[in-house]
Amino acid sequence: MDINNLWRDFLKIINEEIGSRVVETWFKALTFSSWDSQAGVVYLTVPNKFVKEWIISNYQNLLITHLSRLINSPISKIVYLQSSGDNNVQITPAIKIGQGQLVKQKIERGKESNLPASYGPSIIKGHINPEYDFINFVSGPTNSLAYAAARAVAEKPGLLYNPLFIYGDSGLGKTHLLHAVGNSIQQNKSGLKILYQTADRFVGEFINAIRFDKVNEFEKLYKEIDVLLIDDIQFISNKEQTQEIFFHIFNTLYERRKQIVFTSDSLPKDIAGLADRLRTRLDGGLVTDIQIPTLETKIAILKKKSEQHGEQLPDNVAQCLAELDVNNIRQLEGLLVRLYAYAALTKREIDIDLAKEVCVNHTKSAIKLTLDLNTIGTKVAKYYSYTVQDLKSNKRLKQLALARHVAMYCMKRFTDNSLNDIATFFKKKDHSTIIYAIEKIEKLKLSDNNLSRDLAQLESKAFRE
Ligand code: ADP
Ligand code: MG
User: Are 182 and 156 within 8 A, CB to CB?
Assistant: First the structure.
């Protein structure tokens, strides 16, 4: 799973739960560095001790609850890595350009930032994913225009389509193409400064720049770039101040004939809360889309991904996977990974029977889509020998309260409903009770064997009946 996407989903959830102010002030200051799924440890990078302590005392449980849900495995610990060793030094946000990983410099508080001499071209290193190149990208009827345009732009940056705007649904290869442009230009050794950046990172950095009074440097750094690759520009919607500065950066780069490529989940005209003049700019070059792949493209992608991992996927297996109702390539890849993992675990050859078994599991794991609040309420109530009315009541019997909390927990876990929806289901005024319940069950299930058995039975049996 892509860490950036995961973190973005996490931020969306938090945004929904406790509001954008907290997200902008605290969570955007964090970087999701990595996780060790076996040990159940998540590594987050924090800018300083202050943020770390605040997060621990206020949001630790939220982090654990939602991250474990998104990662789909329990988290026992969060390790906070501090991006600067002691409290008197900080990383200057303005040079944290590009995923925050590339140029890290300690700068004493109050002193001017002295950028490393090698800043510039070196900024491209480390955050353009070398695996996403044109060779690995399968072009088919539903992405050929975007593919051709991206290739053209990579060959003659700034000269042909500027900006290039690629839009389409999630998991269809937009980010891949964007990296491919970066990789290709990088391989040409033209010495051009390339920057890949997601729009939400851009927003986050901008807010940091404001917070640390580094807006000028922030703007200057962006304006020095030769090829700017901005992923998921829709995340800039409704961020007026960020749009304003982005507009200036865009104009400068555009006037200097620097190449800009955007991806988005929708057309410029459909991005809500976008200032008109920015919309016009985004619309002003070549706008092209990527649509759901055809069966043949899906098969070709599956085979190519297998080859990349040194495997040969039999034709009929590729066909079997491609025929599933999965159009998101990311999910399709997930199935492929699962297939290989399953084969390794069971020490079996990859063949059509194995593929079918994995596909059946896949359909089962779609449980999330088929459960609604009422079904979960009914099934949990029945499991504990109560009725849904009991669950919705204010009665405080110990066992009933437990059943109620389990239901709340399962609703959050197995549906996409918001906390507010769940609160409404239980006729609660706000969702704090729900958060409390989820946190309680999360904690309790680690130590209470009866509870973990109940949860496992609900998930593996009751919810599937
Ligand atoms: P998006 O940015 O549109 O959500 P991504 O670019 O992240 O999608 O693609 C998701 C996954 O699917 C990536 O691993 C990518 O390599 C793969 N993928 C998507 N389209 C193609 C394609 N045409 N050829 C090869 N791989 C693809
Ligand atoms: Mg993407």
Answer: no
Nearest bound ligand to CA 142?
1
CA 271/CA 268 separation, integer angstroms: 5
Ligand 1 atom closest to 172 (CA): 3
Token couple for 88: 């008197």
Residue nearest atom 5 in ligand 1 by C-alpha distance: 173
Res 89: pLDDT: 28
**Tens digits of per-residue pLDDT, 237-278?**
888 888 999 999 999 999 999 999 999 999 999 988 889 999
Question: Which residues, by Cβ under 5 Å, contact ligand 2, an ion?
Answer: 174-175
Distance of CA 171 from the midpoint of ligand 2 (Å):
7
Half-sphere exposure of 322 (CA within 13 A, CB side): 20
263 forms beta bridges with 166
Instruction: Name the E strands within 23-91.
Output: 31-36, 41-46, 77-82, 89-91
Measured between alpha carbons, how far is 378 from 209 in angstroms, rounded to an integer?
50
Question: Does 163 sit behind a cis peptide bond, omega within 30 degrees of 0 on the bond before it?
Answer: yes
Q: Tell how strand 31-36 and strand 41-46 pair up.
A: antiparallel
**Helical H runs in 144-214?**
144-155, 174-187, 199-211
- Do residues 202 and 360 touch, judged by C-beta distance below 8 A? no
d(CA 119, CA 135): 29
pLDDT digits 0-9 by tens, 321-354: 998 878 889 888 878 877 887 787 778 889 999 8
Angle separating helix axes 215-223 and 240-255, nearest 10 degrees: 40
Q: Nearest ligand to the C-alpha of residue 294?
A: 1
Residue 405 scores a pLDDT above 60 = yes
| Cβ neighbour number for residue 436 with a 10 Å cutoff | 13
Residue position matching structure tokens 């599937």:
464
C-alpha 178 – ligand 1 centre gap (Å): 10
Please tell me the distance between residue 175's alpha carbon and the centre of ligand 1 in angstroms: 7
Q: What is the pLDDT of residue 173?
A: 96
Residue 34's SS3 state is: strand
Ligand with minimal distance to 232 CA: 2
Residue 222 pLDDT > 60, yes or no? yes
229 or 204, which is more confident: 229
Residue type, 353: D
